[in-house]
Amino acid sequence: MSWLTELFTENSIAHDILIYSLVIALGLAVGKLRIFGISLGITWVLFFAIFFANIGLNVSPATEHFIKEFGLVLFVYFVGLQVGPSFFSSFRKEGITLNLLALLAVAIGVGITICFLLLTSNSTGVMAGLMSGAVTNTPGLGAAQAVMEDPAFQHKGLDASEVSIAYAVTYPLGVVGIVLVLLFLKKVWKIDIRKDQEAYNLSLETDPDKPININLHVTNPMLFDKPLSSLRNIVPDHFLVARLYQNDFIISPSDDMLLKKGDVLLVITVKAVAEKLKTVVGEESPVNLQEIPGKLEKKNIVVTHRKATYNKMEDINELYRSDCRITRINRSGIELIAAPNLVLRIGDVVTAVGSEEGVRFYSDFLGNAVKKLETPELAPIFLGIFLGIVLGSMEMNIPGIPVPIKIGLAGGPLIIALIISRFGYLLRIYNYTTYSANLMLRELGVALFLASIGLSTGKVLITVFKNGKGLEWIAIGFIITVVPLLITGFVARLIAKKSFFQICGLLAGASTDPPALAFTLQLAGNNVPSQTYATVYPLVMIARIIAAELFVLFFL
User: Fold this and answer.
1) Angle CA 59–65–66, to nearest 5
2) Which end of the chain lies in a sparser environment, N or C, as judged by fewer CB atoms within 10 Å?
3) Where are the domains of the chain?
4) DSSP SS3 for 288
5) Span 305-368: which CATH code?
6) Please, is 74 exposed, middle or buried when counting C-beta atoms within 10 Å of its C-beta (0-12, 13-18, 19+)?
7) How many whole angstroms separate alpha carbon 138 and alpha carbon 145?
8) pTM here?
9) Residue 83 pLDDT more than 70?
């Protein structure tokens, strides 16, 4: 059995892979356990890595450094791919308010960190680690370390390991801290989950931008014997006539079809436009065309052919048929009206209504090959990572900072992923991955990153508690965690008038904390927190990365 002993004790590629595999396997297994309903999840990988380092099971520094950086790149890149579309759309409507509230939490946290830096003897690296750990922001940790390891600062004799040590000390309480804040706010505000759910459902029903179906009775003589397209000249807003009841038949109308007295139109639009159409077309009809049996077919079709995503829908000739049309589009769970200027994306689910032949033609043109989506496009993924590393390595000169800065391996891939996920179709770059594939690669990346941190800093971490600094760091980290969230929570509730469910997702997103999101979903009993989380997460992630870098640069 000497070979087994050598495998665990002697440095080799097999030894390094074995240690990483064991650390991650044990960490993820224990991470499933819940204590008082709270799970630290993947954080246990960090703790097991620290334990392994202290019993002498280490890996080579070269392997540890490579896997740490590669894991970080994987994590931030696939986070960017997932939230990219929602990141750009989040600046519409109340997304602006939510993002400003999240940035308020970031700003308060940075301000508290600066105060503790000036009032205590802790170094800039330690405070950067405490700030990132307190909000469980792993990319911020990577960004701060990247700045301290930059060759331009080697003459300062910086110790980048102190960043990860401070991070490891405060991370666990950072996860618990937001949970305690949410429970405290629920108690203080006397939240009744059932009543809040009813109030939120009512707000959704009255959302002015929610697509609705309305049946209109054609009674305006000015429209008689006029083509359906003439209606768009009068009401230029976005609306879609999905069905037309004429001469006792229900059909999918084309724009050149003539309107007759007594016709009934099934229109899909928003409430404000529906009111305009009532004025022009006629009053709402008691006849519901969706309930009348007819020869029209309705089918949900998944977009899998690239040629359907090259142009706007109005510029694709194949989508112009007199016997069928697309009425709705479901994109990542969000219902959209099939507006002419909309560009379809791989993975969209469109609702087609029309004749059997027309629906079949649309299905063939759009693809509807669900299994095809299960095979990821690897080339665009690695192209995006390549561009992200190039962007992250670019030097930028900022007035007042003595040396050029870089957004690093934490920032570059994230920004490129956000851009590609939203605008990649313009350059024919397709990087669609299923949610499960994206989640697996994200979890793999952050697991490798946390394992590398623990293995490289584990021994030093123990000495922190021996010299009495550990408890001080925990106290500082807890303040950085709790105070910004409490202030932001009260501002969101009392001034911005957000629901408790939205605040749950807001605070979890402001902390970039997936375990906290899991807890908020359990607490709320609905999916509202995840929607708010996705709205603020991208901007907060970028803000925390930049904040960590600038904090180190300004206070070196």
Assistant:
1) 105
2) N
3) 2-200+376-555, 305-368
4) coil
5) 3.30.70.1450
6) buried
7) 11
8) 0.68
9) no
